[in-house]
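Reviewer 2 asked us to include a model.

Predict the structure of this chain.
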Amino acid sequence: MRRYQRLAVAAVLACAALTVAGCGRAGASPPVTPRGPTPAAVRGPTAEEVGSTPAVSSPAPRSSPGQCRVDSGWSCTQQERFAAANAYISRTASGQAYLSVVFTDRQTGRAWRSGPAQHEGWTASTIKLAIATDLLRRQRAHQIALTAVDRRDMAAMLNSSDNAASDRLWTRFGGDEMLARFRNQYGMTGLHFVPGFTAKTYWGFVKCTTDDLAALLNYVFARVDPADRTYLVAAMRGVAPNQRWGVWAA
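Predicted model (structure tokens):
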């Protein structure tokens, strides 16, 4: 089974103390506060989200390199990777940066997490995955009809983080009405607009938690139509070299 079909890891929530390519937004940008988010990753699925056994969180291994906890449920190689991730998170953690990771094995449902995974931060361009997921689901339900131009915009939005293409899709297919679906259908319950930047709601002025992003990824991997999931996974694998942002960083 291919890596993305088995494992779900997301490195998300950028545009603050650590900068990730692809975080730009058309129009005015939200201010970066001293306690803004840094790249984070998200938890495994719940039973309600995927209709199956929820992920079981495993404590972060504390062993030093070369040691292996046989009762952890993870291979020694994977435990060494987790230890390296813990060390990086420890070095990064400060009053100006937040970094968290949840690594989920999609065959077993076992999940490993480290860092403040419930810290709220700017979605930045990660919201584009939610937009694409919503458009594909609605077309599959015969609620909208995506034209060849719309498809090109979606491909550009996913491949090169094209903001103009994202703007066109956002405007054409409902704008802020999408957020209710993101919350109610994809499990992104903490997703919300941050007021004060423009007179209108806009995809670039949104915050969420890493749990919200986990719910989105779990929806993509477990509940999206297989053909649409194949498209999205291919997009995550084939993003432009200068756009290793969001879930594409995995």
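The chain has a mean pLDDT of 75. The first helix runs from residue 3 to 6. We have added this to the supplementary material.
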